[in-house]
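Table S2 (continued). Query chain:
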Amino acid sequence: MKFLKGGVITLAAVVLAVFIALATWEPFFAHQAKAPEYREYSAEIVRDEFGVPMIYGETDPDVAFGVAIAHAEDDFFTLQDVIAMSRGRYGAIAGEDGATFDYVYHLLDARGTAEREYPKLPEDTRALFEAYATGLNQYADEHPEEIKLANLFPVNGEDVAAGFVLRQPFFYGLGNVVGPLVAGEELRREFGPDIPGFPREGSTPGASAPVDEAEPGGQARRDLVLPWGEDAEHLGSNAWAVTPERSGGPTTLISNSHQPLRGGVAWYELGVQSGEGWHFTGANFPGSPFPFLGHNENLGWTNTVNRPDMADIYQLEVNEAGTQYKLDGEWRDLETKTVTLPVKLGPITLPVRRTVYRSVHGPVIKNDKGYFAIRYGGMDSVQQLDAYYRINKATNLEEWQTQIARMAIPSTNFIYADREGNIAYVYNAAIPDRPEDVKANWRGILDGKRSDLIWEGTVDYAEIPKLINPASGWLYNANNEPYTAAGAGSDLSREDFSPVLGIEEKQTNRSRRAYKLLSETEGPLTRAELERIKYDTAYERQGYVADMFAGLETMEAEGELAEARDLLLTWDFTADNQGPADALALLMIRDFMSAEYNNKNAEELPKVAEHLQKAVDHLTTHFGRIDPPMSDLLRLRQGNVDLPLDGGSDTLRASTTWQVDEDGRLSLVHGDSFIQWVEWPRDGGRVFSRSIQPFGAATTRPDSPHYTDQMGLFVEHRLKPVRFWEEDVRAAARSSRKVNNAR
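Corresponding output:
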């Protein structure tokens, strides 16, 4: 018994030791960053009646320091997630889902890229990022009770740069290459004209046929997939620009980006002004010292996601040992590195070991079908950090376009306008400079043994689609192809662009509606007309909408299902909360939109009867009827505020993605988010703008008055004033405080 008792005590001690080790190892094992070299910063944070900060400073770095502190005051919770991602430690916060992104962090060599390339940036750009990191460190030092992961701070500019390297490729769909390759699943291509000699088909990587000639399909979905855990397959944005000649008044820029309402790629509104000429208002994502879109005194821009073919996949021939791959008849060493991914499970964090590979092509993924290398636009670069900073301070179209022409910002459409009355659309994309004289199917699985298929650099700016000051006087984009942007007689011709560029050929319902409404407006595109277009809730009976209704018209049903079918066939094709069929249509239409958007094959398309039955079951379970008002179903919810919404998936008034709450209501998680409406008066007067957010400036601070204070305006299609000019900022100020790091 004494021996048994001693054994139990020993076992308990071992278990306790293991538990303590698993609960404490990660912060000590993690990479420790060195704080930026000391430099004194001083900024003033002035907040208006909605809590939106304007940050003032003598120098640009002073302002960047203040940006970090202001953003942390409103959303330090999310900023920590983003910093953890930039350090490969997100799994220690978010468990298995976080570890998935940590794997991608190592796969893309985000840290190595930052270490190599960040020191090459201009000194003033690095100064901006070091100041921003200093602000984050100071807030962390002053609020230790808010820190959710030990040894996450200090951070430096290199850490912030690594976060950019990790996040940017996902905006053009790199996740839809990485994901299927890791799982060994079929890849799809969905855009662009067919490359002559290579028909478009699906393929599975690792097929036994020669990868260049007999296996021509294999293109991954290029929908927007972001590594923050949102329902990413439905994402989109709208943007408009109108000349003063066409508006009959001001040059107008409307920014209507659709992002998740919370998390690492949710918009944060702010303004900046320095004594060095940096004066800008707009919005950024957590982890950035500058706005990504908005306007300064002279010009502005907004963005929508585009989906060019930015990634190529190569199947490698690897030796039996898995240590070398063949290139041009010679064996080369396959780079391998074992990484440790932290995976939080309750009170403990498990260390999970994974091997990442790299060849001269780029990152390599091993699956059951072999080894596959990925090469993508913008790979191993941090130049976007500098380009975004420069366009913030551009003063005219020429200066702005010079920065865009660097092809440093890997992707996203730009819609531009300025005080001189210029408008522009640029299909911005760092598209690989693929050799057109080489026989290869760039949409397929390429032969990794051929070095002539390993391209270098991107195409020239002159090769990508762009429109400046079209005769129509208007431009728009709603995640559609660049060949419908300005109306008949002004649009670009697809024949002018090489199929090797891989430019998508895709329409959304939003693009069909915007194009139709803009084209049909014969008179001036006044503010009222543009508001009517922006908040439009209608669907065109084309594409997936037509397919869904064709299925309904031929569907046989009885009883309640037949009643629902007949009701839905009376729908007026608007999601305006007015008709008895709106709720049914809202529940039905998103999956059909997703199927078209993600290029699913016939076997994967939604079954009309099956989806209608699910919609009926949901409505009868939670509302006791199949025709409740849509406003009872679709809600904007934050804290104790619960408001009705209009709009649907893929309408210009976008209520795109939601979570189903316990009461059966649909709580919006993605859709219309930050909206900014900018006008430069025709007579040369000062720029004027308005904006709105779905919730408020302090999205993760329930005790803040700005946690929900914009919700009422948002659901009523109203905008609030943007405080851009200092006298307006001071007049509307509700708080002002100076921050510095003086020792």
